[in-house]
Amino acid sequence: MNRLTWMVSALLLCAGTLLSQPSIGVWPMQLDYGRVQIGTSADRWVSIFNGGDQNLIVDASVSGEGFALIGPEHSEIMPRDSVYAVTCRFSP
Predict the structure, then answer these.
(1) Which of 11, 23, 29, 80 is the most buried (most CB within 10 A)?
(2) Per-residue confidence of the chain (92 residues) as pLDDT tens digits?
(3) Strands 74-77 and 56-61
(4) Cα 18 → chain centroid
(5) Are 90 and 33 in contact (CB under 8 A)?
(6) What is the SS3 string spanning the chain?
């Protein structure tokens, strides 16, 4: 079983009062790729949520041989329940 634990670093840009800030949520926290044959690939998706009231700046990255992000690695997520989907590919 191959598992990837997401390491999401978020630079939180806050403006206004201390009560005004982004709020990050990531689901799922681990990805299970099951059995993936050599020479093929499998994609899994992670959703990053911003439930706060300020923009959330996200820089996503993966590590480990055979893992790659598909699509933009940097995004600004708007406030109030906005979602950003990240695709991670495993290619053994």
Answers:
(1) 23
(2) 444 444 433 333 444 445 688 988 999 989 999 999 999 999 999 999 999 999 999 888 888 999 999 877 788 899 886 788 889 999 99
(3) antiparallel
(4) 25
(5) yes
(6) CCEEECEEEEEECCCCCCCCCCCEEEECCEEECCCCCCCCCEEEEEEEEECCCCCEEEEEECCCCCEEEECCCEEEECCCCEEEEEEEEECC
Rounded to the nearest 5°, which phi and psi values hold at 64?
A: 110, 145
Q: Provide the CB-side half-sphere exposure for 76 (13 A, CA).
A: 5
Comparing C-alpha atoms, which of 6, 69, 72 is closest to residue 41? 69
CA distance 51 to 56: 9
Which residues are bridge partners to 3 per DSSP?
32
Query: Rounded to an integer, what distance in angstroms lies between the CA atom of residue 90 and that of residue 65?
Result: 9
> One-letter amino acid identity for 63?
S
Which pair of tokens denotes residue 60?
């996503």
